[in-house]
Design a protein that fits this description.
The chain is mainly beta. It has one domain. About 10% of the residues lie in helices and about 30% in strands. It contains one helix and four strands, in the order αββββ. Strands 1-2-3-4 form a four-stranded antiparallel β-sheet, with no helix packed on it. A hairpin with a 4-residue loop joins β1 and β2. The chain is globular, with a radius of gyration of 10 Å.
Length: about 60
């Protein structure tokens, strides 16, 4: 998965408003919050980021 750079510049974590970075694997891509106290990982399904806190994976 490769999101457009302009999209990554404007997307923020809905929980804490920190920037998001690409992460996960090719089979299960994610957008990961860069906030030190948050760290939620949001799934990307069929190229579309699902920015719902209820759908996010909590950091381990």
């Amino acid at each position: 998965m490769k999101l457009e750079s302009f999209l990554l510049e404007i997307l923020v974590c809905p929980q804490c408003r920190a920037a998001l970075t690409e992460g996960g694997t090719e089979e299960q891509p994610e957008l990961v919050c860069t906030g030190a106290d948050c760290g939620l990982a949001y799934p990307v399904r069929e190229g579309i980021p699902v920015l719902l806190v209820d759908e996010a994976r909590r950091p381990a």
